[in-house]
């Protein structure tokens, strides 16, 4: 049966079947080809979308704004300081107000329950632009990026390893998307930073049906061995206290993705990162961490980040195409 996601919210990948995820990846590739060919695709002319950001963003915000414009829509950006959300107005009330004015709503913020509540009350599709638990739009872009390297559907049976803070929103979501698509997933990091046990169990259940495997290991050699993709993310996520840096550096330094670690992966392995990244001292936080702890490169070395196996900017571009696919699929 043909896939239709019209009217659906996009809150977490666990809500979607492998076929629906496949459809979104293919639609992303189609929209990317149209964009590169400068072929107009204003399929959602006249619609309006609200973009709520309770945390900062470069890629996600720009992808939603440019994507909305490419599709013929108008986007309104709401930052926490410029709206009543949470302070003077509940999520449920905000949802019912915005649902009367907009055709779709993006939300980036804290607990997953907030985006779920927004979707429950809005009456229009709600898209998760990152919560503490999940970052689902990132995953559509990421699988598209992997498939650009290894072929459409070419990831099945390959190994993807998330190095470091594997229990964060990106690590969790990567585990889910791999389980759904029959990709072997490995979370490689210290026990303290692993995905939640319940989520691991859920993903193992999904994996049993798709042929994926889920491995958790603290051993870098085991994690890197044979991996086609080495993926990492920052060690302290948005919303977490900056007091955590010392502890995270102690726990996660062995998992820094550097040339030695990449050398343990498959010979054709690529490096991926959702970005932003602390690979040098050219950021305020990167410099502060250097001054305090003496480390100039954190989750990834500059050599790997800038090196020939890095696909991080293709991945960043693919955020645009995949976010457009999510909006188009749910609003058309
Ligand atoms: N990867 C990602 O979501 O980036 P932003 O925080 O810049 O949106
Ligand atoms: N784990 C990171 C992802 C940023 C895109 C964070 O939540 O800050």
Core attributes:
332 residues, alpha/beta, Rossmann fold, 2 domains, five-stranded parallel sheet, four-stranded parallel sheet, 13 helices, 9 strands, binds phosphoric acid mono(formamide)ester, binds norvaline
Description:
- The protein has 332 residues and is of the alpha/beta class.
- The chain has two domains: 13-134 and 318-331, Aspartate/ornithine carbamoyltransferase (Rossmann fold, 3-Layer(aba) Sandwich); 156-227 and 229-264 and 270-308, 3-Layer(aba) Sandwich (Rossmann fold).
- 44% of the residues lie in helices and 12% in strands.
- It is built from 13 helices and nine strands.
- The chain has helices at residues 18-36, 59-70, 91-101, 112-122, 136-150, 169-181, 197-210, 220-224, 245-252, 259-262, 284-293, 302-305, 312-331; strands spanning 48-53, 74-78, 104-108, 126-128, 159-163, 184-188, 214-217, 229-232, 270-273.
- The strands form two sheets. It has a five-stranded parallel sheet. A four-stranded parallel sheet has the order 2-1-3-4, sandwiched between helices.
- Helix 2 (59-70) links the parallel strand 1 and strand 2.
- Helix 1 packs across helix 13, helix 5 packs across helix 6 and helix 5 (136-150) packs across helix 13.
- Bound molecules: phosphoric acid mono(formamide)ester (CP) and norvaline.
- Norvaline (NVA) is lined by residues 130, 168-170, 233-234, 237-238, 274.
Task: Kindly summarize this structure in a few lines.
The chain has 332 residues and is an alpha/beta fold. It contains 13 helices and nine strands. Helix 6 (169-181) runs parallel beside helix 7 (197-210).
């Amino acid at each position: 049966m043909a896939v239709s996601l019209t009217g659906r919210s996009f809150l977490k990948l666990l809500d979607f079947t492998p076929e629906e995820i496949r459809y979104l990846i293919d639609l992303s590739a189609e929209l990317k080809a149209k964009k590169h060919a400068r072929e107009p695709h204003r399929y959602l002319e006249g619609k309006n979308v609200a973009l709520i950001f309770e945390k900062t963003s470069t890629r996600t915000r720009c992808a939603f704004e440019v994507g909305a414009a490419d599709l013929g829509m108008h986007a309104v950006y709401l930052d926490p300081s410029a709206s009543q959300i949470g302070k003077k107005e509940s999520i449920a009330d905000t949802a019912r107000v915005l649902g009367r004015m907009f055709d779709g709503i993006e939300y980036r913020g804290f607990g997953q329950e907030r985006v779920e509540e927004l979707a429950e009350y809005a009456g229009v599709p709600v898209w998760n632009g990152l919560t503490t638990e999940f970052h689902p739009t990132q995953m559509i872009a990421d699988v598209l990026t992997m498939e650009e390297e290894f072929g459409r559907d070419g990831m099945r049976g390959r190994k993807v390893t998330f190095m470091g803070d594997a229990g964060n929103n990106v690590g969790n979501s990567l585990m889910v998307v791999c389980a759904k698509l029959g990709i072997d997933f490995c979370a490689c990091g210290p026990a303290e930073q692993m995905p939640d046990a319940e989520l691991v169990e859920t993903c193992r259940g999904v994996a049993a049906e798709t042929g994926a495997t889920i491995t958790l290991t603290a051993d870098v050699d085991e994690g890197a061995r044979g991996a086609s993709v080495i993926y990492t993310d920052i060690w302290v996520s948005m919303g977490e206290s900056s007091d955590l840096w010392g502890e995270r550096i102690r726990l996660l330094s062995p998992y820094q993705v550097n040339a030695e670690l990449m050398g343990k992966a498959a010979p054709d392995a690529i490096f991926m990162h959702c970005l932003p990244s602390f690979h040098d001292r050219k950021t305020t936080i990167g410099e502060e961490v250097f001054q305090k702890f003496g480390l100039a490169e954190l989750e990834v070395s500059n050599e790997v980040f800038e090196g020939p196996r890095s696909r991080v900017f293709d991945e960043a571009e693919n955020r645009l195409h995949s976010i457009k696919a999510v909006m188009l699929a749910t609003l058309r």
